[in-house]
Amino acid sequence: MNRTEMPPIKDALHFDLRLKPYDYYELNNGVPVYAIHAGAQEVLQLELVFYAGNFYESQKGIAAATNFLLKNGTEQRSAFQINEDFEYYGAYCNRACYNETAVISLHTLSKHTDKLLPVLEDMISNSTMPEDELSIYKQNAVQRLTVNLKKSEFVADRLINGYLYGTSHPYGTSNNTDDIEAIPVDQVRAFYDRYYRNGQCAIFVAGHLPANLIESMNRTLGGLKLSKPTFTAPEILPAPAAEKKYRIEHDANGVQGAIRIATSFPNRHHPDFKKVMVLNTVFGGFFGSRLMSNIREEKGYTYGIYSYLQNHLATTAWMISTEAGKDVAESAIAEVYHEMLKLQTEPVGADELMLVKNYMLGSILGDLDGPFHIIGRWKNIILNRVDASYFDESIQVIKTITPEELQQLAKQYLQPEHFYELVVV
Amino acid sequence: MIEFDKFELRNGLRVLVHPDNSTPMAVVDVIYDVGARDEDPEKTGFAHLFEHLMFGGSQHIPVYDEPLQMAGGENNAFTTNDLTNYYCQLPAENLETAFWLESDRMLSLKFSKKSLEVQRKVVCEEFKEHYINKPYGDVWHIIREMAYTTHPYRWMTIGKNLKHIEDATLDDVKAFFKKHYNPSNAILVVAGNVTTERVRELAEKWFEPIESGVKLQHNIPAEPEQKEARRKTVYADVPLDAFYKVWHIYPRSDQRYYVTDLITEILSGGGSSRLFQRLVKEKQLFSQIDCFHFGSYDPGLLVIEGKLVKGVTPEEAEKAVMEEISFLKENGISETELEKVKNKTESAMAFEDMSLMNRASSLAMYELMGDANLINTELLKYQSVTRNDILNVCHHIFREENSSTLYYLSNKKS
């Protein structure tokens, strides 16, 4: 046996990667249901996606507050009762508010689905958005924000998004404690009425699906005043900052700098997007990336450094993010630019590119494991309004992209002077 | 039911196989029976630093990550107070690559000076990022030192201080490897699209030639029973006052551990739990409150922690928490409440088992506890808990002399 020699491998280029197709239904009210029936465990994940994100709010914090309060009281149920109704069956009902969309999700053992759908129905049609619940929400949200504002990472994320999109844009805005205090209950109720009770909704469900699921959903959610989404949000133009470089002293005793380097980037519809996903992986998208190898594994400036494309539906951004020792933060930034220039001037080596391709394909293969991951990919495709062939085309791009193409993309998109640069200590 | 086979190699390495042909992937999980509790009190943080060095090249392979990535794989590792776990996932066709990599670093490391120098810095940055440059970042250092006088749970896996990490030498690294990293102190779990025959063949090929090493006797000093309540107040640059109270609980292998786990669910397992409903919603004394336990092998701690609403004193907050505890001790819980937390446990386990990686690492951890089949039988242990068990365990745990209380207060009074 020769321990120095790697055993033969099957090249990931030969893996057959397929995204299991979803089943499609429409409820009586037109709400679309995308379903993946798979998995050995008798569990189910149901996501109700509403077009009720902060794109639609006329005052800061309304969308998030409304989304939060969906679980805090209906005409029939108190907040406690809603929680009890889910938790008695070991189920989890969560909600989350994003930019275009806001979500109510349910995770439950499949056998309890029928008992929980009526609770969701009640939340969507009969929420009362009680004033005392709003005031507790405000109190706790303000306190949570106060703690987060002590963290340089949190501050850095807010600032960089403000530079990229402008602080009036839904992607660049952030709430201060005053904004939270000022949320009026009547606006929350109006928002609920328009964007939830009479809102646009799409349903994504995956797992071990009970045979009568669609029937049960029709009996509950199918009778609500919801409609099929147009899958579009109002167009709001970003207003990026003119100044590119920022150094913020946030905490005089800070021992690390939160570094963010970012530039705006087109969304998934741009023909270069899929290719840039590969370039990003080479650059900073995984543990073996250029940034990680140099700045962590070679220099030890940081515990971790990553680059990624933000997952926004409209325009988006390419971001490099790390926390580095205060005394080495500037050196770390210099190395980031050095790696950009290197990708522009030297083609990626054949071995390295092969490694990245295999890594990406292997990782997608692993990620297709299980119904929740599969529906997650479909949800992304549907909400981004890209073609069903998007997945296959991405795989094809990974398999075929060349060092020359990557170098060309680096020349076009990885120009240091186009990037915002921020350190928060 | 999670099916698995088990066999032992001649050098003492225990091997578990969990075939699941619904996935194209395989997971290889190696657990070493060493954690921060096995460290020298003067060289803390070492088990975790060592975990970083396991990626710095082995005897015959210059770097660990690259060949694995070439085979379409991903990996990571973590260290706890009790154990160190390494896991990777890759397309099942390339399973042998994982055997090649994992066996070589069990055989011997490269012991590179450069790798030690860099990883010392990386771990120091990790320490800063999570425990210094963060509000409330040092809380667990303080609490562990209050609650434990003797047992090495006194320190966190990251270590007591930066200096212990900075001072680590290559000789320390070599000695640590020799003592802990060998087949006698390891468990190998292979899960996914594999067969037991194939795993046996590969295990015999790659792992059996490794010298067995000496099985470690942990020799961990037991924590003496706490006889007096401990209290401390700390002022720090934080925006909100915080309250922490901890009690000693039972070891992982004790049936009462499961009872304790359910008690934490009753107190704070969701929006309908007692502490949340009473103290956040009704009395509005806390903006956030949690109850959890360490989940450690040796007796751990049950924790109640919360951030106080501005204007509430820590004394008021503590009094309110203790009223809930007294109420629980006096009246116990209802049958419905017990049913609820059992249902939650059943559901949490089902969700956890969805991931192949979780199934593999659970098998490894249960085997380390002495019985891999706990993955299938543990739910019964929860289901057998009675209202009376809850009452008894509450009476035993929630004694003031068994507790440590920390007021962690803002030094900027507005």
Short description:
The complex is a heterodimer of chains A (425) and B (414). With 425 residues, chain A is of the alpha+beta class. Chain A has helices at 62-69, 79-87, 113-126, 131-148, 152-165, 177-181, 185-197, 213-220, 273-285, 290-298, 329-345, 350-367, 371-383, 390-400, 403-413; strands at 23-26, 32-37, 43-50, 92-97, 102-109, 201-207, 245-248, 256-265, 302-309, 316-325, 420-424.
Would you mind describing this structure in some detail?
The complex is a heterodimer of chains A (425) and B (414). Chain A is α+β, with helices and mostly antiparallel strands and 425 residues long. Chain A has 2 domains: 201 residues, Metalloenzyme, LuxS/M16 peptidase-like (Cytochrome Bc1 Complex, Chain A, domain 1, 2-Layer Sandwich); 180 residues, 2-Layer Sandwich (Cytochrome Bc1 Complex, Chain A, domain 1). In chain A, the strands form 2 sheets. Chain A has a 6-stranded mixed β-sheet with strand order 1-2-6-3-5-4, with helices on both faces. The model of chain A has no long low-confidence stretch (mean pLDDT 96). Chain B is of the alpha+beta class. Chain B folds into 2 domains: 202 residues, Metalloenzyme, LuxS/M16 peptidase-like (Cytochrome Bc1 Complex, Chain A, domain 1); 181 residues, 2-Layer Sandwich (Cytochrome Bc1 Complex, Chain A, domain 1), CATH 3.30.830. Helix content of chain B is 43%, strand content 19%. Chain B contains 15 helices and 11 strands. At the A-B interface, α2, β5, α4, α10 and β10 of A face α2, β5, α3, α4 and α10 of B.
